Amino acid sequence: MTTRRDRAALTPQHRVLLDELGKVLPAERLIFDPLRRLAHGTDASFYRLVPQLVVQVRSAEEVADVLRAAGRQKLGCTFRAAGTSLSGQAISDSVLVSVVGGFRGAHVSEGGEFISLEPGVIGAEANALLAKYGRKIGPDPASIGAAMVGGIAANNASGMCCGTAQNSYRTVESVKVVLADGTRLDTANPASRAAFATRHGALLAGLSQLRAEVLADAALSDRIREKFRIKNTTGYGLNSLTDFEDPFDILTHLLIGSEGTLAFIAEITYRTVEEHPHKASALMFFPDLGTAARAVQRLKAGQVSAAELMDRPSLRAVEHKAGLPPILKTLPEAACALLVEVRAADAAGLKDRMADAEARVADLPSLAPITFTSVKAEYEVLWDVRRGLFPAVGANRPIGTTVVIEDVAFPMEHLAAGVTDLQALLRSHGYPEGIIFGHALDGNVHFVFTPDFGPAAGVERYRAFMEAVATLVVDRYDGALKAEHGTGRNMAPFVEREWGHKAYRLMKRIKALFDPDGILNPGVILNEDRDVFVKDLKPLPKTHDLVDRCIECGFCEPKCASRSLTLSPRQRIAVRREVARLGATHEDGERLARLEDDFQYYGLDTCAADGLCATACPVSIDTGKLTKALRAEARGPLAHGIAGAVAGHYAGTISAARAGFAVSTLAHGLVGEQVLSGLAETLHAATGGLMPVWNEHMPRPARTGPLADVVKGRDAKVVYFPSCVTRLWGPARGADDERGVSAAMMSILEKAGYDVLFPKELPSLCCGLTFESKGFPELADQKCAELEQALLELTQGGALPVLCDTSPCIQRMRAHFGPQLKVYEPAEFIHERLMSRLRFVKQPGAVAVHVTCSTSKMGLGAKLQAVAQACAEQVVVPPAGCCAFAGDRGLSFPELNAAALSGLRDTVRGCVAGYSNSRGCEIGLSKHGGIPYQSIVYLVDRCTSAPGGEAHA
Ligand SMILES: Cc1cc2nc3c(=O)[nH]c(=O)nc-3n(C[C@H](O)[C@H](O)[C@H](O)COP(=O)(O)OP(=O)(O)OC[C@H]3O[C@@H](n4cnc5c(N)ncnc54)[C@H](O)[C@@H]3O)c2cc1C
Ligand code: SF4
Ligand code: SF4
Q1: Distance CA 223, CA 198 (A)
Q2: To the nearest 10°, the Cα dihedral for 944, 948, 950, 953?
Q3: For all residues of the chain together, what is the average pLDDT?
């Protein structure tokens, strides 16, 4: 939480800036408390700078305001997209201007040939929009699931397939930008160009002058052309001066790869590239790097889309993975592999390309027969090998060390020699764990190693190693020290060495033309400090076993429900690391106490603990587990006593809680929505969030009725365990169907001809989820074991299927129960067992389906959708994501639920109702979606009849 002292802690200039910005931006988008400055300042690099101020911008006007105000104070501003950069270019000790949460505009035009994107759009989201046209954006960094367009363009990021032909530099059509002085330009708009030419004629003339000078110097022009023959992101894209004549074109292309040091990119229009639907891959094993390099040269002359080189240590790092060829374990020391991909528009084309690639390498010595596979499941296993390389080293590194991924390119003719020399350098500098892999078609290799920056000697060893790398790559092979990842702070001291004095001076003149006061990302790309690459190294101390392997890559962030409200998983971990560091060093007790205090709300209270972050994490970290563990550690004896009593008297607790809901339902009827809602909000605030906020979608108490066995001697039998949630919460007041979920479920089972058995001790049974999420793991396990025992008895050791109606509970049961019990989610049970026993009649109009986190983690989203499609003419499925209701957390911290569902209303507009499989989630979905959400079983019940009967939809 921000305090007055936080403002006082800023530098005088930053205080002035803060006050100025306070007049034009909402206070909640100006962040300067210690916890969030640290958290938002974190990026994927191994550098750490803590910004004085984080400003969240939503429009080009706001960016212009920020830059003008910062310019008056001569304060540095660093733009921030997803913060997945690796070279230290996305961090700041001054002002961090973040697009996260805004700048989400995207527009596809001319049948998918072009796409205009604002900088906050994630690369994968852009590709999802283009998929139906068979197109995609050209740049394809491995981080495309998290990286945003602003960062992709400003880093000129590229990946396995795009090479130098389809990167942002080659595929940009036009840009909208904001210059350091706040001037805006749309290079596609003639009026904007004319206005800009009037005001910034000197800049345009300066660019033309630079071009003229370069063209007049044949040696320099040749050097520029030569250097961009391979991938290169060291320094500015000087090829803009040789490739383009029009100063607006030069400006546009200089911005690509400029790492936020020349201007802010407010929108970029790309020419899109074809996304071939037919793909095949082959993993080729060669006896040595020289043979592999010859294979690459030949394949490059053909039509392969990717050729990923992996050295022997790389293969060793993943050889234990399931599904990989056994040969991996027996390869000789000098061996290496090439993972080759071909793509085509149709099956016949694919066949030709496979045959062509095979023929090109047929006479080269290989360690295993070369065969392509076009079976997705098979080639995905091969690509998992390649994808698993970086995480494999990151995950296995000693705690406290840093994982560094470097990114160089050799001219193709030196690829084999360059990689061999790099292998030797890694070993001779004490990095035996180092592995080398990369995009061989572009001569681009990454090497991953794990230096220990704790002791000074570790830093000095890294310095010596990087100096040796520069000598090798630049002096011996005239390669590029950064091929894809950008210069940042990491390679800034080496830019002149790679490019030479003349070209370096050109770069300085470019910077001066765009940003004469040097306020845009100072210290990045050009930096006179020779030591900057070994300064401000990020400490990664041990903090908790559950998250110590985190490499702070940021891949988890798009999954997180709380990221726009409080913190992302990566930010939670970064704060815990700082807490651990301060605790160990006793450096600043006051700061430590403040971080601990603030972490309660930002880190713990507002984590939905759904674990969706783990689904995107390359090292499988579930930050939700950390949250639960920290919540558990914080529970005192009194809380344990109360929770123990609740667990021991569970039946009574549920019935008392049901009575509580009855009171609130009655009050709703008596005093009305607005009054009750106002009262509840006051109480919520007064109790520090302990008393939940009421909303009109709050459930009535469940009218479960007597849940008696239905035994008619039919063959089909199921054990039904209605969760505590559906036993407690009924439908919302005013819902069309006033029955509880179990009544609707029973109706379907009756129509389908099922006998139904209930556990005898049902009122006292629970899967333990509530206890787990509230920080009582032992009680949670105890309740879960009781339930398993009861179900084992009733199902006669698992002979009968078990049906439950609440997806998070089902997921927990599946995770904790032994293999005998098969627990079904309702849509899954209907899909697998009831579809053929029911007659479906589709209802008119559109319905929405919400795939809960647990449903998606159990892989049941498609079945839920299929069941809904059997019932409704049109089914809308918004992108999967956590709604953050999180059991009942959405009641205590309604702002979390609101933040997670802020876009829902627009997505489900036009739907008559929404359906899901978790009663808690449905409360928040109804409130924020603007349509009533219920369990999918109501829809199925309404749209089905027994085979001989009539459905009423
Ligand atoms: C595990 C891992 C794998 C990676 N793999 C690849 C890869 O295969 N290829 C590759 O090229 N990179 C890779 N990267 C690096 C990085 O992900 C990419 O360069 C990515 O494009 C950065 O995008 P971002 O949204 O994270 O940008 P950020 O890191 O937030 O910013 C990148 C740069 O752009 C500037 N910037 C951001 N927004 C704007 C804007 N609107 N206007 C002007 N400047 C702006 C920032 O100031 C910064 O200098 C990888 C990173 C990780 C962690
Ligand atoms: S938790 Fe995983 S995905 Fe998130 S930053 Fe850490 S390593 Fe990356
Ligand atoms: S568990 Fe959910 S809310 Fe918590 S950090 Fe992970 S994704 Fe975010």
Answers
A1: 34
A2: 20
A3: 91
Calculate ∠ Cα 764-769-773, nearest 5°. 130
Residues with Cβ within 8 Å of 251's Cβ and at least 6 positions away in sequence, in order, are 185, 187, 203, 204, 207
* Whether residue 556 has its Cβ less than 6 Å from ligand 1: no
Lowest-confidence segment of 102-106, 502-506, 534-538, 903-907 by average pLDDT: 903-907
* Residue 2: per-residue pLDDT: 84
Distance from residue 276's CA to the centre of ligand 1 (Å): 25
CB burial of 580-607 (b: ≥16 within 10 Å; e: otherwise) equals bbbeeeeeeeeebebbeebbebbbbbbb
- Residue of 80 and 920 predicted with greater confidence: 80
Instruction: Name the token pair of 808.
Output: 């998070």
Query: pTM, whole model, 2 decimals?
Result: 0.90
**Residue 684 pLDDT grade (very low, low, confident, very high; cuts 50, 70, 90):** very low
Residue 686's pLDDT is what? 44
Which residue's CA is the nearest one to ligand 2's atom 6? Answer: 550
Place of tokens 């697009």: 99
In sequence order, what are the residues at sequence separation of 6 or more whose Cβ sits closer than 8 angstroms to the Cβ of residue 57? 29, 63, 66, 97, 98, 99, 102, 103
Nearest 10 degrees: Cα torsion 916, 919, 921, 925: 70
Q: What does the block give as tokens for 794?
A: 């009733």
Closest atom, ligand 2, to C-alpha of 557: 4
pLDDT for position 949: 66
pLDDT at 953 over 70: no
For ligand 1, atom 9: residue with the closest CA: 141
pLDDT of residue 683: 46
Residue 570 beta carbon below 6 angstroms from any ligand 2 atom:
yes
Cα–Cα distance for residue pair 671/680, rounded to 1 Å: 12
Secondary structure class of 320 (helix, strand, coil): coil
> How far apart (Å, rounded) are the C-alpha atoms in residues 401 and 450?
6
Average pLDDT over residues 657-678: 54
Q: Is 70 left (phi over 0), alpha (psi -120 to 50) or beta?
A: alpha
Which tokens sit at 635?
């529970």
Neighbours of 37 (CB within 10 A): 20
